[in-house]
Amino acid sequence: MTDPTLTRDVYLGGRFTIAQPRDGYRAATDPLLLAAAVPARAGQSVLELGCGAGTALIALATRVAGLSLSGIERQAFYADLARRNMVDNRLEAQIETGDLRAIPAALRVPFDHVLANPPYYRATGPAARDAGRDAALREDTPLSEWVDCALRRLKTGGYLTLIHLAERLPDLLIAIGDRAACKVRPIAARQQRAAGRIVLQARKGSRAAFVMQAPLVMHEGAAHIADGDDFTARARAILRDGAALDWD
Question: Lower CB count within 10 Å: N or C terminus of the chain?
Answer without folding.
Answer: N
